[in-house]
Design a protein that fits this description.
The chain is of the alpha/beta class. The protein has helices spanning 14-27, 58-65, 69-80, 84-91, 108-111, 114-124, 137-140, 143-160, 176-187, 189-196, 201-212, 229-242; strands at 2-8, 32-36, 50-51, 98-102, 128-136, 164-169, 219-220. A 7-stranded parallel beta sheet has the order 3-2-4-1-5-6-7, sandwiched between helices. The longest helix has 18 residues, at 143-160. The radius of gyration is 18 Å and the shape is globular.
């Protein structure tokens, strides 16, 4: 059993990618289950095999403790740990080769807080896991925002200690020149540094380090059009089969 965590900033398309990836795997005759780990989501486009809202509902937490939406979500994830044994028991009953985990919109839960790491370990147990970090195409087309997303992705990789595949979501919303520019940034640090203009030596070193640590160039996908999933699945398989330090010599595919 392999766990695939879908991670990214709010609005980056995590839930729709979860749905489309599940459909892709099922269409290719692979046993697949889905976990909803977002206690604040109001509706889902898929039927989860495990739904954390059965244990903790962020809207009830918000009302009960007189919290705002953000604080209620953080408190809800903390409360998940109070039901750890029950949750673990239910998840252990899932039988599937791939288990996709749809995560909350607040990325800091996994980038900075111990709770996200503890919950992810609770879910996966001794099973192999990886993360798909979604680069929102709207944010990623600006160079400095692209670097900020790289930093978030690196922070999550360090915090969760799992392989991370970077995915450019909603790629169908980009013009061809915008898409090609983003992909060139992920393939060559000089392209990104040139786009930034005049920056100090520390920033140059940081950009080089971030891109050197990428396991592979960013993978563009369109959940609306169903494009890019062959390449995404191939990357997932390389991690599953070869571990975290896999490398690919194939050029990054364009949509």
């Amino acid at each position: 059993m392999y766990f695939i965590f879908i991670l990214g900033t709010a609005g980056s398309g995590k839930t729709i990618l979860t749905k489309t990836l599940q459909e892709y795997l099922l269409d290719n005759e692979m046993d697949t289950a889905v976990i909803n780990l977002d206690p604040a989501v109001e509706s889902l486009p898929y039927r989860p095999d495990f739904d954390v809202r059965d244990y903790v509902d962020a809207f009830e937490v918000m009302e009960r403790y007189n919290l705002g939406p953000n604080s209620a979500l953080i408190a809800s994830v903390d409360l998940i740990l109070t039901r750890a044994s029950e949750i673990k028991s239910e998840i252990d009953q899932i039988e599937a080769n791939y288990v996709i985990v749809d995560t909350p919109g607040q990325i800091e839960l996994f980038a900075y807080r111990d709770t996200g790491r503890i919950v992810s370990q609770l879910i996966t147990g001794n099973n192999k896991s990886l993360g798909l970090f979604l680069f929102d195409s709207y944010l990623a087309k600006e160079a400095r925002s692209f670097i900020s997303l790289l930093l978030l992705s690196s922070s999550i990789k360090f915090r969760l200690n799992i392989p991370i595949i970077n995915v450019l979501s909603k790629a169908d919303l980009l013009k061809d020149d915008e898409l090609n520019k983003i992909l060139s940034w992920s393939e060559n640090a000089e392209n990104l540094i040139d786009e930034l203009g005049k920056i100090d030596e520390y920033s140059i070193e940081l950009v080089n380090l971030l891109l050197e640590n990428l396991s592979s160039p960013i993978i563009p996908v369109s959940s609306e059009e169903g494009k890019g999933y062959d390449e995404l699945y191939a990357s997932i398989q390389r991690v599953v089969a070869g571990g975290e330090d896999y490398l690919t010599e194939e050029p990054n595919p364009r949509l």
